[in-house]
């Protein structure tokens, strides 16, 4: 449905998107997750034809976003990070204007606007000026604009940023509702946000895709490489002698507790759970283990580890690069 190949974007010397490649299949909710400055908005702006790429290719249902922008854009509804709202228009006027831009036929227009306003719960405020609406309502107007025309793909850049918890829940519900008939891609720098609604997570760091999978697979894949903790009331050297015999151990870190217990954090190679092996190795040498447990890596830890060193750098906007 969407194919992104080796997408690269430079702003002057700054590499904002670095050889990004991924595909998006129909009917799922995808989440772009990454800290501020990771390149999410840049990627989305390129995918939707708002920004040119330095290199690489974006195909929307087989249409190149640069070479066949009309066909490609017809498949997409986009809510940019800063939605282009006209403050002096009423909600309904603005949506009519947006419908015209999207070349929705006159016959279908009113019914579509009704439906979009109904989905985003805007009907009650349709005659209000946009400038008088709260942040949450403005966001809904942006969303209504994105879903007008009911394109196959709906792309939402940080759709819940700046909203209060109740509004966030409403937007999430709306996203889930949309996902029944559309493919939805949304971005966020907040893990909880993405985990809550997405079927598939793409973690972006410094313009690179560093991991992509379902939330469950990401956790499972990484948890094997998670830590096993053991405790034994023996000399550290004795404990280490046993650990050295176990080939699957990647590295370990011993700590001596006040009561003389040796506590070890063990990092394992690969996804296999080697607790049984560890148990047997110590039992063979008649060393009882006080503790033997698997500390599962949480998605939070995975996210932190993958995006570490990702310092937020706000570059000055260089007009020449736009
Ligand atoms: P995100 O949406 O993940 O926060 P962005 O795509 O907005 O990230 O930005 C990626 C990087 O590109 C950041 O380092 C940002 O400062 C830089 N950047 C974004 N837009 C511009 C621009 N118009 N000119 C120069 N640098 C930019
Ligand atoms: Mg952004």
Polypeptide structure, described:
There is one protein chain. With 322 residues, the protein is α/β, with parallel strands linked by helices. Helix content is 35%, strand content 28%. The chain is built from 11 helices and 14 strands. The protein has helices at 40-47, 69-74, 91-101, 106-119, 135-147, 165-179, 191-197, 215-224, 236-244, 275-284, 299-307; strands at residues 2-11, 14-24, 29-33, 55-60, 63-64, 76-79, 153-157, 183-188, 200-205, 208-213, 227-232, 249-256, 262-268, 289-295. The strands form 3 sheets. Strands 6-7-8-3-9-10 form a 6-stranded mixed β-sheet, sandwiched between helices. Strands 2-1-4-5 form a 4-stranded antiparallel β-sheet. β12 (249-256) and β13 form a beta hairpin. The radius of gyration is 25 Å and the shape is elongated. The structure holds adenosine-5'-diphosphate (ADP) and magnesium ion (MG). Magnesium ion is lined by residues 40-41, 81, 157-158.
Total strands: the figure is: 14
CA(first)-CA(last) distance = 28 Å
Structural class: alpha/beta
Shape: elongated
**What characterizes the major β-sheet?**
6 strands, mixed
Mean pLDDT over all positions:
89
Calculate Rg over CA atoms: 25 Å
Summed up, the helix count is 11
Bound heterogens, unique: adenosine-5'-diphosphate, magnesium ion
Low-confidence segments: 311-322
Order of helices and strands: EEEHEEHEHHHEHEHEEHEHEEHEH
Estimate the helix proportion, in percent: 25-40%
State the strand order across the main sheet.
Answer: 6-7-8-3-9-10
Q: What portion of residues belong to β-strands?
A: 25-35%
């Amino acid at each position: 449905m969407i194919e992104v190949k080796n997408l690269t974007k430079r702003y002057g010397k700054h590499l904002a998107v670095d050889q990004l490649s991924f595909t998006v299949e129909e009917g799922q909710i995808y989440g772009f997750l990454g800290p501020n400055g990771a390149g999410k908005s840049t990627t989305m702006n390129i995918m939707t034809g708002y920004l040119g790429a330095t290199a690489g290719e974006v195909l929307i249902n087989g249409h190149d976003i640069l070479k066949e922008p009309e066909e490609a854009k017809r498949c997409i509804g986009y809510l940019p990070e800063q939605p282009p709202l006209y403050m002096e228009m009423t909600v309904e006027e603005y949506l009519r204007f947006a419908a015209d831009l999207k070349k929705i036929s006159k016959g279908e227009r009113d019914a579509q606007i009704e439906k979009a306003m109904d989905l985003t719960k805007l009907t009650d405020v349709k005659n209000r000026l946009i400038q008088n609406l709260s942040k949450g309502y403005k966001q809904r107007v942006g969303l209504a604009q994105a879903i007008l025309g009911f394109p196959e793909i709906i792309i939402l850049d940080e759709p819940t940023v700046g909203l209060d918890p109740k509004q966030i829940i409403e937007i999430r519900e709306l996203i889930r509702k949309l996902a029944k008939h559309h493919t939805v891609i949304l971005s966020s720098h907040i893990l909880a946000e993405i985990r809550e609604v997405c079927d598939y997570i793409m973690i972006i760091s410094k313009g690179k895709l560093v991991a992509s999978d379902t939330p469950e697979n990401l956790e499972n894949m990484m948890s094997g490489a998670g830590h096993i903790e053991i405790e034994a009331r023996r000399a550290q050297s004795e404990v280490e002698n046993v650990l050295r015999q176990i080939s699957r151990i990647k590295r370990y870190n011993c700590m001596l507790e006040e009561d003389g217990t040796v506590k070890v954090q063990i990092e394992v190679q690969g996804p296999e759970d080697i607790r049984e092996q560890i148990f047997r190795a110590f039992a063979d040498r008649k060393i009882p283990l006080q503790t033997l447990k698997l500390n599962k890596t949480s998605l939070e830890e995975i996210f932190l580890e993958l995006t570490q060193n990702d310092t937020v750098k706000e570059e000055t906007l260089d007009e020449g690069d736009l």
